[in-house]
Amino acid sequence: MKKELSELDCTAGELLLIDKPYGWSSFAVVAQIKKWTKAKIGHAGTLDPLASGLVICCTGKWTKKLTALIGCKKEYTGIIYLGASTPTYDRESLPENQQDISALSLEKINATTALFTGDILQYPPIHSAIKQEGKPIYELARKGEEVIVKSRAVTIETFDITKIALPEVHFRVVCSSGTYIRSLAHDFGAALGCGGYLHTLRRTQIGDYRIEDAYTIEEMASYFGSQMNARIVVPKG
User: Which residues are designated catalytic?
Assistant: First the structure.
């Protein structure tokens, strides 16, 4: 149950559900909350800056529970853009390989989700934070160096198409921890024969914790600003 911000005791320990805004890094969220609360803090898994939604932060004694929370299954909603691909599998890079999708049927789009439901092997994007020889592979990829990406086993429990308004396909996914939704979007477009990339992503659930119970950054800024008797300007990044 969502507490009133005035009831929180972050120094002793709290589990905080945060609605991360688009454009923020998870690190920026943690750093800002630490600045406000002055408490020991950690988070249960990152979320890309180009995604919004649920991030779990733990303060004080609750930081001991972070490891268990990291492995929980996740729920996402978002939009896959069909008819092109991008090197990063999302909007961080420019679309390329434009293709005609006029012959693409709604039946084929819905049927193709079955290929990505259940236990599958997935290749993470080369523009990701996975490390190779001690360095994140996105750094190597940006330098044009060779990147070796190994497949990983993930489980996609649910892959529902919730709306089709081509070239956009809206979806809901429930998946195991470690699943790359960017890779799912890319592979889904490839399976349809037209290419695709992740246009929008929002994390709505981690384990039993849902976005509806999360605090927005604006709510926290308003409360902590009044406690500090100062106007707080919340930075992005």
Answer: 48
